[in-house]
Design goal:
Blueprint: H1 16-28, H2 33-57, H3 67-75, H4 87-104, H5 112-128, H6 135-146, H7 151-174, H8 197-220, H9 226-242, H10 261-273, H11 279-301
Helix pairs in contact: 2-3, 2-4, 3-10, 4-5, 5-7, 6-9, 8-10, 8-11, 9-10
C-alpha cells in the first residue's frame, strides 16, 4: 500500500460526486499517490474501529475484544482492490454507521433523529455509489426486526434518503451543470474475475475461517441476549445484500466485494475467540498475514 501506492481510478460508471471528490483530493494532494494511500489506510483503520465498537457495545461476543478489527484489517489487506481508495471504500464507512444505528434502535424509544440519520447516510451512499440502494431493503427489514412497525418512522427514513439527493441535484441545477451527469448508473452483469493460485488460496482460507466462525456462532447463539441475536441477524442480512452488489455493476471487479468483508470480519472473529485449542487461530492469522504480504508486495511490483 505504501511502498508502491496507486492512484484511485475513475471510470465512466463512477458517480459524479465521487469524481468531484477525487478531483478535489488530487488538487489538494498535488497528485501525490502516497497521500491517497494514507487516506485509504485511515479509512480502513477507522472502519475497523467502528465495526469493533458495534460488536462490543451490542455484546455479540461474551467478552469485549478487538478481534473484529484485526480480522477486518487482515482481510482487506489480501486484495489490492480492497485497500485502494474507491467509491465502495467510502460507502463502507457510511454503511458501518448505518449498522451501528440500526443496532442502537433496540435500546431507544424516541429515535426520530436516528431514523433520519440512517436515511441521510444511505442517501449519501447512493450519491457516491448508486448500487448501495439495495441497502434500503436492509434498513426496512432491520426496522422490522428491532421495532414494531410505525409508518411515521419509515417515512422519516425515506425523507433522510431524499435530503442529500435533493440538495446535490439542486446545487448542480443552480450551477447550470449538465443534469445528465447525475443519471444513476446501475447495471446487471455476471461477475467474471480471473484468479491466480494465491487468490484461490486466500479465498479458501477466508471461507474456512468464516465457516468455522459461523459454527461457533450457532453453537453459542442461545447464550446471547435477544438484542445481541437481533444484531447478528442484521449482520447476516447485510452479508446477503452485499453479495448482490457485484451483480449490479456494468463491469467486474474484486473491489465490489469489499462490503462483504464487513459482516465476514465479525463472523471470522469468532474463529479466533471461541476455540479452546489455539493452533487454528494462530495458523489462520499467520497464513492470512503471509498471503497479504505476498499478494500486496510481489504482484504490485511485477
Amino acid at each position: 500500500m505504501f511502498m508502491h501506492p496507486v492512484m484511485p481510478t475513475i471510470t465512466k460508471e463512477d458517480s459524479y460526486l465521487y469524481k468531484i471528490c477525487i478531483d478535489s483530493l488530487n488538487i489538494a494532494f498535488k497528485g501525490n499517490k502516497l497521500m491517497f494511500a494514507v487516506l485509504a489506510f485511515l479509512l480502513l483503520y477507522v472502519q475497523s474501529l467502528l465495526l469493533n465498537e458495534i460488536v462490543n457495545k451490542n455484546k455479540l461476543y461474551p467478552k469485549p475484544n478487538h478481534l473484529t478489527a484485526m480480522c477486518y484489517l487482515l482481510l482487506t489487506s489480501l486484495f489490492s482492490q480492497w485497500y485502494v481508495l474507491s467509491p465502495v471504500m467510502i460507502v463502507a464507512t457510511l454503511l458501518i454507521l448505518v449498522i451501528a444505528r440500526l443496532c442502537k434502535l433496540q435500546h431507544v424509544h424516541e429515535a426520530n433523529k436516528t431514523f433520519y440519520n440512517i436515511g441521510l447516510m444511505l442517501g449519501l451512499s447512493m450519491l457516491i455509489y448508486f448500487p448501495s440502494i439495495v441497502f434500503l431493503l436492509l434498513i426496512f427489514i432491520g426496522l422490522s426486526i428491532t421495532r414494531a412497525f410505525r409508518l411515521p418512522e419509515w417515512v422519516i427514513v425515506i425523507l433522510g434518503v431524499i435530503t442529500p439527493i435533493y440538495l446535490f441535484w439542486s446545487a448542480i441545477f443552480l450551477m447550470k451543470y449538465n443534469v445528465k451527469l447525475l443519471n444513476p448508473i446501475l447495471g446487471i452483469s455476471i461477475p467474471n474475475i480471473q484468479f491466480s493460485i494465491y487468490d484461490w488460496i486466500a479465498l479458501v482460507i477466508i471461507l474456512i475461517t468464516v465457516f468455522i466462525g459461523f459454527v461457533f456462532i450457532q453453537n453459542n447463539m442461545r447464550k446471547l441476549l435477544v438484542q445481541s441475536r437481533k444484531s447478528w441477524t442484521i449482520f447476516f442480512l447485510f452479508l446477503f445484500f452485499a453479495l448482490m452488489l457485484p451483480f449490479l455493476n456494468t463491469h467486474s471487479s474484486m473491489g465490489f466485494y469489499l462490503l462483504t468483508i464487513i459482516p465476514l470480519s465479525v463472523i471470522a472473529a469468532s474463529s479466533f475467540h471461541f476455540p479452546g485449542r489455539r493452533w487454528f487461530p494462530v495458523f489462520s492469522h499467520w497464513s492470512l498475514f503471509i498471503l497479504a504480504t505476498i499478494m500486496g508486495y510481489y504482484f504490485v511490483i511485477h
